[in-house]
Design a protein that fits this description.
The chain is globular. 27% of the residues lie in helices and 31% in strands. Strand 5 and strand 6 form a beta hairpin. By secondary structure, it is α/β, with parallel strands linked by helices. The mean pLDDT is 90. The longest helix is centred in the C-terminal third of the chain and has 12 residues. A 6-stranded mixed beta sheet has the order 2-3-4-1-5-6. The protein has one domain: Rossmann fold (3-Layer(aba) Sandwich). It contains 4 helices and 6 strands; from the N terminus they run βαββααβββα.
């Protein structure tokens, strides 16, 4: 599953990832992969990959780092700044758009595939 996280700096993208990991029982430090570009978490029977592509600039780096292999259908990939790797990333199953408002944040969630629609329906059933 591929989830795009879109929004300005400080909008809450990494905070959302931190919350997802905590909800899955991860007790360690959750840091933004701004400089490493990827952090890997294997927990609760899931393989989560957190990408922060804010500083990403080079398609050759994509191949050299083996990022294509992370999108193998076995991982859940949460991708901040997906526009930085446009043309390299697979399409999103879900897209979450963060908007900073005077009184907090607003999120819009879009299902972009059948998998995304199933996920969004399951989330909606629990809200």
């Amino acid at each position: 599953m591929v989830i795009y996280l879109r929004g300005d700096l400080g909008a809450g993208k990494t905070t959302l990832v931190r919350g997802v990991l905590r909800a899955l029982g991860f007790g360690g430090r959750v840091k933004s992969p701004t400089y490493t570009l990827i952090e890997q978490y294997d927990l609760a029977g899931l393989n989560l990959r957190h990408f922060d592509l804010y500083r990403f600039r080079d398609a050759e780096e994509w191949e050299a780092a083996g990022f294509r292999d992370e999108f193998d259908g076995r991982n859940i990939c949460l991708v901040e700044w997906p526009e930085q790797a446009q043309g390299l990333l697979p399409p999103a199953d879900l897209e979450i758009v963060f908007d900073i408002r005077p009184q907090g944040r607003a999120l819009d969630i879009y299902a972009r595939s059948a998998t995304g629609k199933e996920c969004l329906a399951a989330l909606s059933a629990h809200c």
